[in-house]
Design goal:
With 379 residues, this protein is of the alpha/beta class. The chain has 9 helices and 23 strands. The chain has 2 domains: 73 residues, Urease, subunit C, domain 1; 286 residues, Metal-dependent hydrolases (TIM Barrel), CATH 3.20.20.140.
Length: 379
Amino acid sequence: MSTLSIRGGVDAAGASRDIVVVDGVIAAEDVGPVDGEVLDASGLRVLPGWLDLQVNGVAGIDLTNEPDRLWEAGVALAGFGVTGFVPTVITSAPRARARALEVFAAGPPAGWVGAVPLGLHFEGPMIAGSRKGAHPEQWLRAPAPELVEGWSRADGVLMATLAPELPGVAEVIDLLVGRGVLVSVGHTAATAAQVLDALDRGARMVTHLGNAMPPIQAREPGAAGVALGDQRLTVGLIADGHHLHRATIIGYTSALGPRRTLAVTDCTAALGLPDGATRLGDQHVLVAEGAVRLADGTLAGSAAPLSQCLRELAAATGWALPDVVGTCTSVAADLLADPTRGRITAGARGDLTLVDEDLEVVATVVGGVVVHHAPGGGR
């Protein structure tokens, strides 16, 4: 039996909190003294493990171009407080998606510890050319049943982003929803009617609201307008200080509330690297002053950790810390219908993120194992 005791910390609401994780699972709060490893959380917030549902890469690793480095990426992400993530493969050659599925299915190498990949996100290729953003145009494809053959949650496809205005998309949405894939609306110029039809067929998410979609108009609200008003949708926001103006975040979150707001980073290989050149799939990108762009200036994902996004959300919304933290914990877990993650409750996974008062990550615990610990953080 393995035991980890986290002592002396406080939870998101500021209440004193000692936590015991036994064999990877959070024990009941009334558990008595136990032997095993002790993690000193004095002066720290002990939060549910952070979940990032849109990760293109990290630490020089591009998951579209280098899917074989998936497990290496999980190790790196733990250093940023992430305990579970959704690797994103952008619009690319079919072999990139096939290889990503093979690597995910093969599982981690022996002895591996890190942030756990929860399933793949195929962002494209069934997106609108007019709203492709940083996705390479040569790999865009029209929706078709043969294109999504083998796309199922059981086979490792957790999420798919598509544009609901494309011909043939209705049949594809029906197929994906029936296979347990979370369908997300994004990179789209769809009308409100087209988005609502996708929702009626089972789509339940919007990919990075406000980016790669038209603005709301009085008589044609489009995807953005539907996202703000339709309670069926959980809505991803990239609050990295580059993708959305703070006034936009204020407006969006005022409509969404904390239970429909999903904080995602859309982080790329640039996360953890200094400014300079790196990659997004087939393309070279440049990181400058924290923003990731193609040569023509198009935003191409982010270089932001979740801590930065949460601070921006807190500043914009004024929400209490439990609500801010919930945007990358309980909201994400609920969207994925995973009751074992996103909360600190007896029987949940022993996934925890320990931060200081500025939300800087001090330690990350995955399944009761300390997988990251900043120097001087106490232990």
